[in-house]
Amino acid sequence: MSEAPRLCLVVPAFNEAALLPRLLRTVEVARARYVHGPGGFEVIVADNGSTDATAGIALAHGCRVAKVEKRVIAAALSDPRIVGGATGITTERWSAGIAFCYYCLFLPPARITGVDAGLAFCRRRDWEAVGGYDESRRFAEDVDFLWRLRRLGRTRGQRLVRLRGVRAVYSTRKFDQHGDWHAVWQGARLVLGLLVHRPTAERIIEQYWYADRR
């Protein structure tokens, strides 16, 4: 059996027959120089419903082609009543604890406010108008961004939208590390710290989001 690729480059493309060959030629140079050999470097072209020769060109260059037929974000942003939104999430695995956290802690606020998790999207001009993600924040920068986008939309009669049927897969590594019910008590500690004792909240943030990765 051949060894699985060590690296995977994903190239999103829509009707890129004119420019894709030039890109893939540079990728071929990189693959040839890869320390583990060309077979350790996989290239996938995500063909987003192209009507030209994009898929054929990708195959001719030895790439895998992943057909992407659902273009739901483009459809959502074609509606002037929508300022942006998110895909929502599903989890890698389920358990009683994870299901409780998802359906009782995470999902209700998302349904009420429209500020959801997953892949977030908006128009470039609105991204620039709200200043994008706040890089000074140590956690929940995606929530903060969508909240500001929501406020911008409300000034123009627009709303956030939660897409259906295309939820992003949420990693359960934190549940694997800390237990399937940990978000209940950890979330309560964080909220309490933010409300009454900021240093405690900072310690929780450091330990939970940063120390585990060192």
Low-confidence stretches: none
Beta strands, count: 8
Shape: globular
Number of H/I helices: 9
Helix content: 40-55%
N-to-C span: 34 Å
Give the number of domains.
3
Structure class: alpha/beta
Main-sheet strand order equals: 1-2-3
The whole-angstrom Rg is: 21 Å
* Oligomeric description of these chains: single chain
Please tag this protein with its features.
single chain; 214 residues; alpha/beta; three-stranded parallel β-sheet; three-stranded mixed β-sheet; 47% helix; globular
What secondary-structure arrangement, pairings included, does this model have?
Blueprint (H helix, E strand, L loop, with lengths): L6 E7 L6 H14 L7 E7 L6 H7 L3 E4 L4 H6 L4 E5 L2 E3 L4 H18 L6 E3 L1 H7 L10 H14 L4 E4 L5 E3 L2 H6 L3 H15 L1 H13 L4
Parallel strand pairs: 1-2, 2-3, 4-7, 5-8
Antiparallel strand pairs: 4-6
Helix pairs in contact: 5-6, 8-9
Textual characterization of the structure:
By secondary structure, the chain is α/β, with parallel strands linked by helices. It has three domains: 7-67, no CATH class; 74-171, no CATH class; 181-214, no CATH class. 47% of the residues lie in helices and 17% in strands. It has helices at residues 20-33, 54-60, 72-77, 96-113, 124-130, 141-154, 173-178, 182-196, 198-210; strands at 7-13, 41-47, 64-67, 82-86, 89-91, 120-122, 159-162, 168-170. The strands form three sheets. The protein has a three-stranded parallel β-sheet with strand order 1-2-3, covered by helices on one side. Strands 6-4-7 form a three-stranded mixed β-sheet. α2 (54-60) links the parallel β2 and β3. The two termini are 34 Å apart. The model has no long low-confidence stretch (mean pLDDT 88).
